[in-house]
Amino acid sequence: MQNKIFQSWLERIKDDNIINELKTLTKQQIQDNFGKSLAFGTSGIRGTMELGTNNINELTICKLAKAVSDYVNQYLSNKSVVVCFDTRLNSKKFSRIFAKVLVQNHIKVHLFLNFAPTPLCVYATTKLNAGLGVMITASHNRREYNGVKVYDKDGISINTDTQQKISDLYNKTDEVKVYNGIIDYNFNKKVNYIRKDIQDAFVDREFDKNLKNLKIIYTPLNGTGYYCVKRLFTNNGFKCCTPKSQTLTDGMFSTCPYPNPEFMEAFDESVKLAKMRNADIIVATDPDADRIGVVVRHNKEYVHLSGNELGYIFADYLTKKGGRFVVTTVVTSPLIDKICQANNAKLFKTLTGFMSIGNKTKECVGLLGANNHALSYEESCGYIVRNDYFDKDGIFASFKICQIASELKSQGKTLVDYLNDIYAKCGYIAEHTENIIFQGVSAVEDMQTTINNIRNKKISRVLDSDIIKIIDYLQDDTGLPKQNFIEYRAPDFTFIIRPSGTEPKIKIYMFYKGEKDTANKKIIELFKEIKKLFF
Q1: DSSP code, position 184
Q2: Do residues 265 and 392 share a domain?
Q3: DSSP three-state, residue 179
């Protein structure tokens, strides 16, 4: 089958450059790249930038753009779409291809003239009253990846019904026919180009200029966040320095091959500068600036904070400042429950991903009022710290964490001190996440087979502890929509196993309560036991 699809591309495509590139593919590459079609999944598509139906390229971008066009024309009265792109290789080109297909199908297009962060795409979608927002990005993935995210009119990742409708249309689309139709199409006079004024409106806000004592290193990791974060900091009296090597955009991510602020390796360049300047805090945004990571100087060492640890700080601080509710997910650390209880705040848990978090936040804002919203977040470094926004936003989260750190510095404390105060009040829970990655043309099928085998393997003891409860979120009645993951609870620990919605990998979330040193050792033993039992 894959050779037939490959041959169809080779015979029908009217672009000599692509034809010549196809002719250079080996038999193994043809099998890998044409053995299946890239699926439209949670909010969009993502893959490596290569030719083939299983990769991100001009033709698969055309395929999704046509499916989105058909969805808008069939299901929406508002026939307009915002199209934005990040600094990755080919992102600008892909945004123009996407816009061409939309315009050809009579959709009004608001197209960003220059690269911009995902939070700005979301803001523009709501500000310009568009029917959908489209962001060309692969978020925090390595440089060989690219992809597309799709947002609804409220700036929330599209829901499962919309996903399914677009997926059905996508699977019926002939990408070669669509691509041939846009090769010579001139669309420049038929789009509304979004310029710098929408960016200024997004970040020109003042909150608090009283605290200016913090030494900040900020890095966009060669991505899109620099202008917005710097402007927001400047508007509010903060000054920051950025490593020169990471200030400018670089689609190769030369100084940071894996630009994911969840991990300390992303901070290598920033830590060098921080040590030179004796900085108090380092903040990084991922390439599309919807996630943040933080490293803080504590006792003369630079300490990386996990996504959950940042969540603890935000939740405790913002609920103490008057926020009355927090939204998070079922894979978030159980310590967040204790923090909300201690501060008399309501906690709402939903499924993973910002489609679920955003919609739950919007629902709670409608019921309880926007001013009562403290925080929405997921453990993978995505946060909502504003009350007028429903998707993760690394730009305003960067400002907020610096605001908290500045206030603490005036008291002679660091963010680590603040964390220790939370642990003293609520107890300590060690947390650890691991990924089991699947590769090859059958990676998704292998992942699904593995999770099904795990589901069928009933266990009663782990680490010499009884498993007191197993919750299957796909089969059990949990009060939430069905999702394919399984939770195991023991007296001192909990772990959750789930397949990723965007990549061929299984994620394992582990939590172990107890005295800090003991819990940190036990949670590593827990992972080894889980790997032995299930993988």
Answers
A1: T
A2: yes
A3: helix
> Dihedral angle at the C-alpha atoms of 367, 370, 373, 375, nearest 10 degrees?
120
Strand residue runs (E) in 52-131: 80-85, 108-112
Please state at what angle helix 58-75 crosses helix 175-182, rounded to 10 degrees.
90
Question: Tens digit of pLDDT for each residue in 474-523?
Answer: 999 999 999 999 999 999 999 999 998 777 899 999 999 999 999 999 99
Edge-to-edge strands, sheet with 216-219: 240-241, 216-219, 281-285, 292-298, 301-305
- How many whole angstroms separate alpha carbon 163 and alpha carbon 155? 15
In a domain, 99, yes or no: yes
- C-alpha 118/C-alpha 224 separation (Å) is 8
> Tell me, what's the pLDDT at 209?
66
- Which residue type does 438 have? F
Tell me, yes or no, whether 333 and 393 share the same domain: yes
* CATH (domain of 457): 3.30.310.50
CA separation for the pair 298, 414 (Å, rounded): 7
For 336-367, give the DSSP string.
HHHHHHHTT-EEEEE-SSHHHHHHHHHHHHHH
CA nearest neighbour of 290 among 360, 208, 228: 228
Structure confidence at residue 215 (pLDDT) = 97
Residue found by looking up tokens 């900085």 in the block: 279
* Vertex 318 angle, CA 377 and 313, to 5°: 65
State which residues form the domain around 461: 429-534
Query: Which of 146, 166, 196 is at the close of a domain?
Result: 196
Instruction: Give per-residue pLDDT as tens, 185-214.
Output: 888 778 999 988 999 999 988 777 666 789
pLDDT surpassing 80 at residue 222: yes
Residue 2 in this model has a pLDDT that exceeds 60: no
Q: In sequence order, what are the residues at sequence separation of 6 or more whose Cβ sits closer than 8 angstroms to the Cβ of residue 295?
A: 264, 267, 270, 271, 274, 281, 282, 284, 302, 303, 304, 305
Q: Look up residue 184 and give its two tokens.
A: 């010579």
- d(Cα 32, Cα 52) in Å, to the nearest integer? 8
pLDDT value at residue 211: 64
Whole-model pTM: value is 0.95
**Is pLDDT at 1 greater than 60 in this prediction?**
no
